[in-house]
Design a protein that fits this description.
The complex is a heterodimer of chains A (211) and B (654).
Chain A: H1 5-13, H2 16-28, H3 33-53, H4 59-82, E1 90-96, H5 103-114, E2 118-126, H6 128-138, E3 142-146, H7 153-165, E4 173-177, H8 183-189, E5 193-194, H9 198-208
Helix pairs in contact in A: 1-2, 1-3, 1-4, 2-3, 2-4, 3-4, 4-5, 5-9, 6-7
Chain B: E1 3-9, E2 13-20, E3 25-33, H1 39-48, E4 58-65, H2 67-74, E5 80-85, E6 97-101, H3 117-127, E7 133-138, H4 146-159, E8 163-165, H5 175-205, E9 212-215, E10 221-223, H6 224-229, H7 237-250, E11 255-260, E12 265-271, E13 274-275, E14 283-284, E15 287-288, E16 296-299, E17 305-309, E18 315-321, E19 323-324, H8 325-331, H9 334-345, E20 357-360, H10 371-380, E21 385-386, H11 387-393, H12 404-408, E22 412-416, H13 419-425, H14 434-447, H15 452-479, H16 489-499, E23 517-520, H17 524-534, E24 539-540, H18 548-555, E25 558-568, E26 574-578, E27 581-585, H19 588-609, E28 616-627, E29 633-646
Parallel strand pairs in B: 1-4, 4-9, 5-6, 5-7, 7-8, 11-23, 19-22, 23-24
Antiparallel strand pairs in B: 1-2, 2-3, 9-10, 11-12, 12-13, 12-16, 14-15, 17-18, 20-21, 20-22, 25-26, 25-29, 26-27, 28-29
Helix pairs in contact in B: 1-5, 2-5, 3-4, 7-18, 9-14, 13-14, 14-15, 15-17
Chain lengths: 211, 654
């Protein structure tokens, strides 16, 4: 009998090689890909999120854990797509123009993918028109904007304005985040939601979509 | 004495009123039927009906008209060539002639690509022979009008046609809606120009030589010059004028205005003397525009709604319109005699009402008629005829008679039992032929399996309920989000209790509306008191409620408002965005001062052009900050709103 908790523990420890090995063994032992992801990988990542929130661990550890999560996901995902790939919805996430910070954004992407969303990484330094183009092409349910500088926060406002000009604002929920961003700011610029960190981000996205 | 003439061309009636603006009272009023084919005919007749007034003393005339609205709904207007800059159309647009050229701007007003003058010229020349006017719409043009202005210059010099730019009509974001607005505006230019010319002719025939103003969708007035340039702004002006009229006539500044006309009942809310405007812009004929208009809810019930009793004895009211039998009978004696025959013969058709008559409206060119259709037209040309006798004379069955196409083409209309007739039966009206109304109501009461009193009560209750429901819908949609209660069983139970329609004695429900209802329009007096009782509020019906729209037209003010924006630029510094320019500043205070000063001047000029005298300017400067920490706030943008309000300047001149 394979102990799925081992996978979770190795995710928390941030040991990518071990996670990959355990995931392969789990599949061999007949554990379903769904279980490996939900009860192993994501369960571990949820603990990481909680510890991060409680300031028990910090961003480097979270990134290690995320990498471990990915090494497992990469292995299991192809199998999932054959069975019943659970895509809760498409999200586009990126860092706004003038800003090249990507750690927080990448973290959110990992957490959302872990939670079952299909996430398109728009990258960094994305212009309002760049986001508009992606929203028009990919028709995501959610657009996530990240800004780590007070000087680039106004670009979030401009991005929402650009969505309005393009007639796309009503079709997509906009969620924003980043160290200097606040709920007050989100309200002021007409964003649909704000999340202080990646774990809350997943909850907010789910909330926006009524999941 | 400062007297002025107000005219309202509604769906059914054209109302005229002469107001003494100094003493704030109505000197004369009149009505005539609206002549849709040529509105000036009805306007002429209406002015003729204004008796006992010395028209030479008039200072000003103002017009509220459904013409622009109807033209959009019915798809009339000239052919428009549209040049889109920087983006292809995403959705259907109200024209077939569309060219896309390179150019357009980002949301911060930087060019996406340079505008190629030759490409614009080519587009204009390609379309020149197929269109009468041009619309130009650039991507993000409200953030930088350069490309639209450059293209306008080129098109104008090459074609000589009227040219309209998106940024001239609105400062709101939304490329598609702005494009729709520009195209519709261009389409309406010849129509509104013709109307103004026709009204001018009517007035000069009567030796009235005064300035003419037109009502906008927000109830304010513009000069005829401005109306010719921006005719789109006159859409939905009828309901807007009714709000202004209601305030003038009642002195009430906070209330619910219920305007019951021949065709529809419109409900709008007045707060502190100002109507609620729709936040997104006016929707007309399925097109969402960026035109400011009164936020209003409409139900298809009016004095001339078509009353039907179906085979299952159910009653239906509207939304189709019919000429009231009492009105037709007062002009044509055969209507009453035919109704009496129908009553005697106990005629019971299936696909029409026994009391239906056909009434000739107008011929249409280029409309191929069958011989039967031609015969119908010939037989009703002199007077309306009942379907019953018409089919007997033509030796066919009324069910088979082919009049539906004629109705659709607007060549004939129906005469039948309407709420107006019911008011005659109930003894509340006696303006037209009461006997015809009585006979028709008796026939229809029989069809519904009721006695006359029961039938009249049923109709009254149904109309009052429909108005109550529309009114409540309007109020709860304003307070909460738009929600639909029609599928909610529990809501239906509650509503039935409120309206007093539910059986069961255990509990009742009363509802209180916190504002008075101002009733205007001819039928309001008859129907409103019951509505107000149900909703536990006051009904205020001023003495001249029947011509409130025309009163509103002439008592409106000139109001021009503009919003401009100062925003932090991504590249550092600050950007000022206005319909006429985009300018960069290093210091925020400089940008704001410049913005305030130029916006004020532009609005003042706009108001002057619209015909305002004694202009009062108000400015509002909203700085938007967002706290980023306990000690630090982030500047986002400044919205500068400038409003100019003035009375029509011609009223101040001596």
């Amino acid at each position: 009998m394979f102990n799925i908790k081992e996978i979770s523990q190795m995710v928390i420890a941030g040991d990518a090689a071990k996670v990959k090995e355990l995931a392969a063994r789990a599949l061999d032992a007949g554990v379903s890909p769904d279980e490996v992801i939900n009860d192993g990988l994501i369960a571990g990542m949820n603990v990481v999120g909680a510890k991060f929130k409680a300031r028990e661990i910090f961003i480097p550890e979270v990134l290690m854990a995320a990498q471990a999560l990915y090494s497992g996901l990469d292995l299991v995902k192809p199998l999932l797509e054959d069975s019943q790939a659970t895509n809760l919805g498409t999200c586009v996430i990126g860092t706004v123009k003038g800003d090249v910070h990507d750690i927080g954004k990448n973290l959110v992407i990992m957490m959302l993918e872990g939670a079952g969303f299909e996430v398109h990484d728009a990258g960094i330094d994305v212009t309002p028109e760049g986001f508009v183009e992606l929203v028009r092409r990919l028709k995501p349910k959610v657009l996530g904007l990240s800004a780590l500088l007070t000087t680039t926060m106004p670009v979030m406002k401009e991005t929402i304005a650009a969505l309005k000009e393009a007639g796309l604002r009503d079709g997509v929920k906009v969620i924003i985040g980043g160290a200097p961003v606040t709920q007050v700011f989100a309200d002021a610029i007409g964003a649909d939601a704000y999340a202080p960190d990646a774990t809350v981000g997943v909850d907010r996205v789910k909330g926006l979509l009524g999941i | 004495m400062v007297v002025a003439l107000g005219i309202d061309t509604g769906g059914t009636y054209t109302d005229g009123v002469i107001v003494d603006l100094e003493r704030q009272r109505i000197v004369a009023k009149a009505k005539a039927l609206t002549t849709r084919a040529d509105l000036s005919v009805g306007i002429n007749e209406c002015i003729d009906n204004l008796h006992g007034v010395n028209l030479s003393r008039l200072k000003l005339a103002a017009l509220s008209t459904t013409l622009a609205t109807n033209a959009i709904v019915e798809g009339f207007g000239c052919e428009v060539g549209l040049i889109m800059i920087g983006e292809e159309p995403w959705k259907e647009l109200p024209t077939r002639h569309i060219r896309t050229v390179k150019g357009g701007h980002t949301i911060s007003g930087e060019p996406l690509a340079p505008l190629d003058p030759e490409e614009v010229a080519r587009a204009a020349l390609e379309m020149r022979d197929q269109v009468d006017a041009f619309a130009i719409s650039g991507y993000s043009s409200v953030r930088n009008p350069d490309h639209e202005l450059a293209a306008k210059k080129i098109v104008k010099s090459l074609t000589g046609c009227p040219v309209v730019c998106g940024h001239e009509l609105t400062t709101a974001l939304g490329f598609h809606e702005r494009t729709v607005t520009a195209v519709l505006n261009a389409r309406l230019i010849p129509i509104v120009t013709d109307l103004i010319a026709a009204v001018r002719r009517s007035l000069s025939e009567k030796q009235i030589d005064v300035p003419l103003m037109i009502v906008k969708g927000d109830g304010s007035l513009i000069s005829e010059e401005v109306a010719r340039e921006r005719p789109i702004e006159t859409i939905l002006s009828g309901p807007a004028a009714s709000l202004t009229g209601a305030t003038f006539l009642t002195g009430v500044k906070d209330g619910i205005v219920l305007d019951m006309g021949g065709t529809t009942t419109d409900i709008a809310v007045l707060v502190d003397d100002k109507p609620h405007l729709s936040p997104e812009g006016a929707t007309v004929g399925g097109w969402l525009t960026r035109v400011q208009a009164v936020d209003m809810r409409t139900t298809g019930i009016g004095g001339d709604s078509y009353l039907q009793v179906d085979k299952a004895r159910n009653l239906r009211i509207g939304p189709q319109r019919a000429v009231p039998l009492s009105v037709a009978a007062s002009q044509y004696p055969n209507v009453l005699s035919e109704l009496k025959l129908i009553q005697q013969h106990n005629y019971r058709p299936v696909s029409s009402q026994p009391v239906d008559f056909l009434y000739f409206v107008q011929d249409r060119n280029h409309f191929a008629l069958s011989s039967e259709e031609q015969e119908i037209l010939d037989r009703i040309r002199e007077m309306p005829r009942s379907l019953y006798l018409l089919s007997r004379e033509m030796d066919t069955d009324a069910e088979l008679l082919s009049y539906k196409r004629l109705e659709k083409a607007g060549m004939v209309t129906r005469v039948s039992l309407t709420p107006t007739d019911i008011l005659h039966v109930a003894g509340l009206y006696n303006e037209w032929n009461t006997e015809a109304a009585l006979v028709a109501a008796d026939i229809q009461a029989g069809r519904a399996g009721k006695d006359m009193a029961g039938f009249v009560e049923q109709v009254r209750k149904m109309i009052a309920d429909q108005i109550c429901l529309t009114l409540l819908e309007k109020l709860y949609c304003d307070e909460t989000a738009a929600i639909s209660v029609s599928h909610c069983k529990f809501c239906q139970v509650l509503l039935d209790k409120i309206l007093g329609n539910a059986s069961g004695e255990e509990f009742g429900l009363t509802l209180t509306v916190n504002k008075p209802i101002l009733g205007i329009g001819a039928p309001a007096e008859a129907w409103l008191p019951e509505v107000a009782r149900t909703l536990n509020t006051d009904a205020i019906i001023p003495p001249d409620a029947d011509v409130a729209n025309a009163v509103g037209a002439i008592t409106g003010r000139v109001i021009e408002t503009m919003e401009v924006l100062v925003s932090r630029s991504g590249e550092g510094g600050f950007l000022f965005f206005a319909p006429w320019e985009r300018k960069r500043f290093n210091r925020l205070e400089e940008a704001k001062a410049y913005g305030l000063q130029t916006a004020t001047e532009h609005v003042r000029q706009k108001a002057l052009k619209a015909g305002a005298g004694d202009i009062r300017l108000t400015t509002k400067v909203d700085d938007m900050f967002s706290p980023v920490s306990e000690h630090e706030s982030l500047y986002l943008e400044t919205r500068i709103t400038v409003s100019a309000v003035g009375n029509p300047k011609w009223l101040n001149e001596n």
